[in-house]
Amino acid sequence: RARxxxxxxxxxxxRGHEAGRSASSGKxxxxxxxxxxxxxxxxxxxxxxxxxxxxxxxxxxVDRWVxxxxxxxxxxxxxxxxxxxxxxAPIVTPIFIMLTIPLPILMFSxxxxxxxxxxxWRRAPLLRHAADLVQAVTLLGAILPIAVPAVGRVQKxxxxxxxxxxxxxxxxxxxxxDASAGDLLGVHLLMLILNLIMFAADIAKYVANRGTAExxxxxx
Length: 220
Description:
Blueprint: H1 2-29, H2 39-67, H3 73-87, H4 92-100, H5 103-118, H6 126-161, H7 174-207, H8 210-219
């Protein structure tokens, strides 16, 4: 009986070691987790997003004020002067340029995170995967190829169409100016919405960190 018991204990220990090895190999074979968004990262993201959202909101507010009383030609003249200033605004434009310098790095990072989600290279909560996908589609599929060119095109059309008349009074082509000014609302509203989506996605990525902290601690 003692011998049978010792043999039984030996088999039990062997199975236990095998189970432990399989569990450990399962952990090692699992893909690594996506890096958490640090506090510094979300702070910088909030700074960038606040800057772009504020500028979009100001443009949209100017459009609403001007188009609220198109019968007043001085407002359309102001709209032309405003977007002339926006083409190369002191202080503001250099800040825009500095903030767009890391744009290629951001584009590469977004594309890499989306590939990591779809190909299973990295693990993350569903919220993190969704936020990465939404940001990539918004920036690479909407803001850069569609919204930015549309905004530039419409603003240049307003500058050209709302030029003053030869006498310096009124507008040279009031009908064309009115039509071009009406196009501004749509493109600036689109740009504002897209930037708000980018802002919300950054917050979602940071919130998703909390969902993995407990799981990661158990694995280690």
